[in-house]
Amino acid sequence: MAKRFSIRQQTGFTTIACACFFLLYLPIAVLVIFAFNESSSVSDWGGFSLRWFVAAWSNQQVVDASWRSLKIASSAAIIATIAATMAALATTRTRTYRGLTFKYAFINQPLMVPEIVTGVALLIFFAQIKIASGYNGLGYLIAAHTAFCIPFAYLPIRARLENMDLTLERAAADLYATPWKAFRRVTLPLLWPGIIAGLMLAFVISLDDVVITEFVKSGGQDTLPTYMLGQIRRGITPEVNAISTVFLLLSVVIVTLFFFLSRKRD
Amino acid sequence: MATAAEIEKQAEAREIRTRWYLSAPALIIILLAASGPLLIVLLYSFLTPGPYGDVQWKFSTEGWVSVFLERDIFDDTLSFASAHLTIFWRSLKLALMATVATLVFGFPTAYFIATRSERTRDIWLFLITIPFWTNLLIRTFAVLQVIRNEGLINTALINLGIIDQPIQMLYTDFAIMVGMVYVYLPLMVLPLYASMEKLDFRLVEAGYDLYATRWQVLKRIIFPLVRPGVVAGSILVFIPAIGAYVTPSVLGGGKNMMFANLIELQFGQGRNWPLGAALSITVMAIVMMALLVYVRNTAGSEVRHG
């Protein structure tokens, strides 16, 4: 029997799509499988082993870089989310006012400029400040990460706010709640899923960054991704596979949480 | 006595002022750690390189001149900097090819997702979103492992007896392009899906009723309707591709440089910060032009992409 004619069907599209999904996951699967390889090769299978995870775990550089990454990502994500929440409150549920378009453009500006350009700009700028102030700490990295995390944190918070009308806040005001009280007891609880989603996005974006970090970091300030980039350039051992596997797992967990959090509101 | 209108006006002014205070932290952080420093790059591109990196505060256009031209060290004559032009050409070519390739693969994929049932659609979408949010370096590294000489592809081909010697794929332009298509594919699929989701299939049905072939329906009905998604996806892929740093450094090796690697070189061994700054502004100008094309193409259309 001939296949039923479907108006939604396009010749070959399903095949290409399935090939895409397959090819999207094949390299990641290979990477994860060889993280469990007994031998030190990343192409010949020598049996199952966890030795590369142990090796990574006992490598002080990896441990330091991981802590540094987590420290930067959590500081940057928290600051960015607070700033983005305030900015979202200031730019939604209002009539257009002078400067509103400017604010949108400015907040999204880090998304428009290639990372390499921002990296170079910050290298130059922070080099001057480093000389002038003598401070060499993680503050520069946190500031840089916060800036490019703001648009990502802003996105889900703004989306959430735009779906909330002002009725409940007005009701609270009618019942003599102060603006602060109305915000704490009405707006904030309703906005919470958006804020958490923004926080998680910002955290993942900061954790993943290579280019800007590479240019801003001072000596001995490798984050996990810049450490890995250095290792990959030098030649590869399954240790990098093991680190990648743990990293992937963390990202997948966060993205899954984010996905369900943002689905829920529909 | 103030009239009611005046009081209302004052209240409104107060509200707008509060809104500015609220947005101030975000604006200041971005100004200090993203937008502001870009102006310093522009300034640096007109200074003289210092002997150990950094700059001397002396005006010079040499940085900009050496973007395209090189000065002969013996007789001071200018000629085209062929090394730079090769890199510009490679960057443009690879970025455009990656954009077209992601479109060729991404269009059917987005269409496939958009035509699934409500429930399974979310799963497919999720499968595209996961790579989108996982580390770009790790994904590039994954490609590296598959295409290297001892990698999956070459090993499989040798074992099947198709080739005797591994094909050198790694450290070529081809490797960079494959890597970029791989890492940027979700950036193409997501906006395409956003416009296909809204596609009205009654129009497609009408096309078939009027004896259109599948190809005609695709070309004359579906494609024009999802054009905003095509433009948005292309821009989203082209911009990071033209400034790509990780993919060419990992998959291109030291020789097959792109824009970003050339810029990095000026701030490292090259010790020519003004040239690096001028090159950065050049990349940004290309990106701005691409964005302008985008704005021109979407002006007037109401379609928004999340």
UniProtKB/TrEMBL annotation, chain A:
The chain crosses the membrane at residues 12-36, 72-90, 111-131, 137-157, 190-207, 242-261. It is found in: Cell inner membrane; Cell membrane. PROSITE patterns: ABC_TM1 (PS50928), PROKAR_LIPOPROTEIN (PS51257). Gene3D superfamilies: MetI-like. One of its GO terms (biological process) is transmembrane transport. Keywords: Cell inner membrane, Cell membrane, Membrane, Transmembrane, Transmembrane helix, Transport. One of its GO terms (cellular component) is plasma membrane. Residues 66-258 form the ABC transmembrane type-1 domain. It is a multi-pass membrane protein. Pfam families: BPD_transp_1. Belongs to the binding-protein-dependent transport system permease family. CysTW subfamily. Required for the activity of the bacterial periplasmic transport system of putrescine and spermidine. This is Spermidine/putrescine transport system permease protein PotC. It comes from Aminobacter aminovorans (Chelatobacter heintzii).
UniProtKB/TrEMBL annotation, chain B:
CDD domains: TM_PBP2. Pfam families: BPD_transp_1 (PF00528). Signal peptide: none annotated. It is a multi-pass membrane protein. The keyword Cytoplasm does not apply. Residues 88-294 form the ABC transmembrane type-1 domain. It comes from the Bacteria. This is Spermidine/putrescine transport system permease protein. It comes from Aminobacter ciceronei.
